[in-house]
Amino acid sequence: MAAAEAPTVSQPSQEKSWHEMALQALKHNDIRLVPYVPDRILTTLIRNIHADPFFTAFPTAREEEAVGIVAGAWMAGMRGAVLMQTSGFATLANVLASLAMPYQIPLIMFVTERGTLGEFNYGQALVCRTMRPVLDSLAMEHHTCTRLDEFEFILDRSIKQAITTQAPVALILSPLLTGGKVFDK
Amino acid sequence: MNTATNLPARNTKVMNRFDITSRLVAKLKHEEAVISGIGNTNFDLWAAGHRPQNFYMLGSMGLGFPIALGVALAQPQRRVFGLEGDGSLLMQMGCLSTIATLAPKNLTMIVMDNGIYQITGAQPTPAAAVADIVAIAAASGLSSSAWAADEEDFERLVDQSLRASGPTLIGVRIDDKPGVGATRRDPVQIRERFMLGLGVREAL
Description:
Number of domains of chain B: 1
Low-confidence stretches of chain A: 1-6, 180-185
Number of helices of chain A: 8
Number of domains of chain A: 1
Distance between the termini of chain B: 47 Å
CATH class of chain B: Alpha Beta
Oligomer: heterodimer
């Protein structure tokens, strides 16, 4: 665990970065369990979540494993969220359709979006195109987060809606939100 | 069934899933949670007598242990048992290392190993003739992993796991019999009753 690592210092501009907003939204909604399969874009968020004793964070070997863990934890009274990238989401159709949806589990997923707006790997671009059709085919709530000024609102409302309606939500983090050195290195 | 002759599993008795599951359930006196994997594993848990702390997984093959891990992390004071088949575990082998790393001391995993996909027509798994699930678990970091030699040994290993300082995995060689019962396939009721059983919810 990266408990010894210091959290990232706030931007000098005082403007909160997307990953600071994400961490705060998890905390405000008492989401303590954060299993993940990493993505480069998630590096800082993952590091800061590890550094904060509020969270229990750890990597899993597969994304569906993480979904199973947060499903079990929620049924036992502990809220969780799963972090992954687009190609990881593409492995989840079976578990969404056979566990999260039919058992009505408020599965909260953060998906960093690869495959668009400058993708260099054609396979990632193709995988990305499967993501929204899968979400739509299951009538799952999902939002593509592109703007910093909307992000806190989308996060907080979506997390609360998932929990109160006991329905999964996918928060897709677009390169428009996460890309570039302004928000992340 | 395993056909290799040099695996430790060969020295163990071939037992029966329903009998083993019934023996486990008979031991439960403290509202222990039991999470059962897909198919025959949860059919036999159902047949052993429904308890409010039982969870029956109806899809998502391989996620029995991950779900059990989530329950164990959320309620560290409660003993949690995970029941899986060998074919299911083969689908999600990585979870053994995750569990070994997190090392919840309230988690006992039981693998029912018949070397076949019984429910789909008893085809052998790819591991049946060559792999040793308990050795894989140990090599994945679960040092308290053992084959049950017979029914008495199984019960002894279960008792031992209650006092262990980390997670335990127990391998049980079983026969090719199908499950005895059939779980009522009502996911919302299963989930809601499980949450009631774990004290997370109050009844409507």
